[in-house]
Amino acid sequence: MTGDKIIRDPIYYDIHVKSSEISLIDTLEFQRLRNIKQTGLTCMVYPSATHTRFEHSLGAMHIAGEVAKGLEGVDCNLIRISALLHDIGHPPFSHSLEIRGYNHEYYTRKIVKNLDIENYSPKEVIEVLQCKGPEGSLIGGDIDIDRIDYLLRDSYHTGVAYGSIDYNRLIRCIVLFEDSKPKLGILEKGVVAAESLLIARYQMYSSVYMHPTSRISETMLKNAAICGIEEGLFKVKDLSRMDDIDLISILRNSQGEGNKLIRMLDRRELFKNILTLKYNELSPEEKWILINLGEEDIRRIEEELSERFNTTVFLDIPPYPKISEHRITVIAGDRRYRLDEISPLAENLKWAYIRSWDVRLYSPPDRYRELRESIDSGCLREILLQFRDRYIGSPILDILKREDRIRGRGRLLSIVKDRGLSETEFLNELQKLIFSGLIREEVVKIRGIYRYDYFPLEG
């Protein structure tokens, strides 16, 4: 069609772009993504990982269109536009700077409200981005187009031999079905392709996304940006209009602690890891407290440790792995299964993924040897006890301790709803409790179907 273009891409070779999409790509808001790195400071480890949210968004649009072609009742043009815009609210350096309450999904919706979108209202696109309707299932389901593209793209640009996904087979096996709302699933013949997605995610998580040097660099960058906010150099909301260049320029021209940290990054003079607490070394209660700590709580812990050791100390608590891919619905005839019910590989990878999570303490390089030899985990554990009373409570855990065992997720959900929790809050809290090891999910097979039972474990 007149006005359409072809964009060359290293992953998919040719991406067809429609004229209505080009008008969005050419906006200032979207062009900003050219200067926002997709993987934060992973380029400190993998020099070629300088790819951006701009190309990822184009790739997500392409994958969304390919998936939508095989699904009845899905508006292909709407899902392509929604996928194109799904990351438009990211701050500089992507997820690294979701600080001080910054939420890229909120700012994405705010930006989309003011865009002129051909043939669609901003409200229609926002509803898709909020995972509503059949199109929304492609954006935020257990298997979604965002994840497929970033694994392929991040693998390519880091140069690692991971991230390989049989995505063409996976796309052909994706189906749409009705549950309480439209959901994506895969046909049984696509299980091996789905397993390739799980393997790629696990390998990329452990070797790329959680690489020690990347984590240290991004922790320094995050704290430099927080210093910039506290020094009045910019506000949190300004991150939705800034790119990587803006942020670095502001901090390099500042006079405070943020400048010091950025100059250290410029020289690759990085903080050092002085203490690692691995998943299996932490008690369930400690894990629960750690993943519930807010930004101000973490700052308070850092200040207490910094005062104790007479130097700056940073605490690095990565987000806990949510492993939603393991819950992919598999359609086998007239039956539906969760992937980790019928795939031993998926079940084992789920726990391998969880156990690769850890917590770390960093100090300036000139104090590394001294602190590395003298520090032990007791200092951090002692401080965590201060937060026990605030965070250890959980409605779900209280119910399970009273009932001992709840047979069936539906029954547990109905009891929890009576306590005032929404279904979304229930699922988030349940996932955190399972991750922490405070409760156990047991799959029970009854006459060819599976039931999920829950019971508390000793903390």
TrEMBL record:
Superkingdom classification of source: Archaea
Gene3D superfamilies listed in its UniProt record: Hypothetical protein af1432
SUPFAM superfamilies: HD-domain/PDEase-like
One BP annotation, GO: dGTP catabolic process
Pfam families: HD, HD_assoc_2
Domain HD: 53-151
Gene Ontology molecular function: dGTPase activity
CDD domains reported in the protein's UniProt record: HDc
PANTHER family from the UniProt entry: DEOXYNUCLEOSIDE TRIPHOSPHATE TRIPHOSPHOHYDROLASE, DEOXYNUCLEOSIDE TRIPHOSPHATE TRIPHOSPHOHYDROLASE SAMHD1
Entry protein name: HD domain-containing protein
Organism: Methanothermococcus okinawensis
Taxonomic path: Archaea, Methanobacteriati, Methanobacteriota, Methanomada group, Methanococci
